[in-house]
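Narrative progress, year one. The postdoctoral researcher (J.K.) led the effort to move from monomer predictions toward full complexes, under supervision of the PI. The following entry was the first complex the group processed end to end, covering 620 residues in total.
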Amino acid sequence: MQKLKIQNNQFNIGHICTKQQCEEGRGDKVAMRWINATLEKKDYTFNDLESESNRFANVLQKLGFGKGDIFFTFLPKAPEQFFAFLGTLKLQAIAGTLFSNFGEDSLLDRLGDSGARGIITKKSLYKKLSRIREKLPALKCIILTDIEEHLSDDVLSYQLLMSEVSEKFNVAITSPDTPSVLHYTSGSTGKPKGVQHLHRSILLQSYTSENIMQLNENEIFWCTADQGWVTGTSYGIIGPWSLGVTQIHFGGAYDAEVWMNLLEEEQVSIWYSAPTALRMLMREEASVFQKHHLDKLKHIFSVGEPLNPEIIHWSQQLLKKDIYDTWFQTETGSIMISNRPGINIKPGSMAKPLDIIEAAIISDKGEILGNKLSGNLCLKAGWDSMFSMYLNNEEVYNKKFKNGYYYSGDLAYRDDEGYYWFLGRNDDVINTAGHLISPFEIESALLELPEIAESGVIGAQDDVLFEKVVAYVRLHKNVIWNDDLEMKIRLYLSNKLSSIATPQQIIIVDEVPKNKSGKIMRRVLKAWYEGKDPGDISTLDV
Amino acid sequence: MNTFEQLNSIFCRVFDDNDIRIMPDLTANDIDGWDSLSHINLVVAIEKHFKIKFKNSEIIKWKNVGQMYDSIKAQVGE
């Protein structure tokens, strides 16, 4: 079943999420209830979304942007982020999003690789950008949401720009193969890769919103994900609004009491969050939950990391609700394998693929494996929200596909009832609080510090974060390890990369294990950390 | 520098922003980048700077900078 109807061959995501909703009679319906950090509320109808995103498309056009240009949002959750995202897509420019906690190195990698021509941010975050601006020759303009006057010819006021343009914009008919959304994702080697999606992705984002998350226009939906990540765009913007669903967006930080109040007062009926947030809720006193009436809440969904059975049992007991774990990746663009209402939950399992997705477990040799055998979790290529490329990195893109299957990098097995079970990654990528972190990026940043001679970074099991970042470090001779140096390292990584990339633990060693070709042997580090036998170390360069 | 000014300089260092001016009613919602992970950096930086240790039960009760400052004051004075 697919409720979304493509009209006049118009696949434009910005158009479908706004104008098409108005044309279908939902113009006066609330599209977004914006709740800021101090709990002030403001409603935006689909008419408002349409006019504000039109204005932004006109702003970009006036500034010389056009089809295929890359424009990023770099904002904490804010209404302007949604208008800018949809407006960029309406112009057929490519909408990239950046996590607002990124430090300057993370920004430079992403903005530099993509050749982004513009970005919208706010004054406090602009400081990070201004430090790297000279290294970004393609970046022609910066729009700030919280200044009233332009700062210069290329640092411009959002309010002023928006006040000077029309709220009407004619969206050109957009083919399904037109590039749309760009997210960067980390691998175990090399710099982050730009994952490009196409406007046709809306078909599957809408389909899964409807058929997995049970969204329809009578529901009130809250997706807690930041728009800097794929969940925040696929399910915090595109999927729900393609179905005319009212969304809650909250600009404040995690606070159990506030979150429970929001669920109750806003009568949220479908809630999409992450295991780390749910595990943090689990640590709260039961009274925090018992005093709230969540009778409007029908379903809770989760994404980002495997959902441990304890959370499901906790939710069943305290919230009186099941939690449905969903699995997808930046590259897949939308949910591929999922628990959902109507199928039995096996706690800890990813459950079953969508009815229109073919998943398989494949060995390293390329054999499709039967039930109960572990191997690479793969998907038959060709689904609508499949990424179209890694920007500037065709070689790595091609390596992700073999014999018509996409290799996800996850290891899993399938049981006799067709349920998939996640086993781990087949690379060294760290999944911390639902965010994929490249050990290579952290190791490289560590080596920028003059005190550090060698570094090796791994993910280690953590009760709240799923995996925590652990850094093994060899210091240069004569450098003394002390509290000040530890703090220097932590803050350096937090400010250069992001808070999520900051090691939770730093371990000083005499040598970081490497093989004879100089590759860091992270499996040995992992074994050391877990107190296990590191296995074959015959290739170790010691 | 008094304790509050020292705390301000720690905030500037942790959040990489020399323009931060803390006030007692400031919360995580008022500073970009103050999330649960950078909060750990902040707590560790305060502990190391003032050579003190907070109890977990104390940390989770803080609702704003004022309460954080009260905890520091209780250990090191004004």
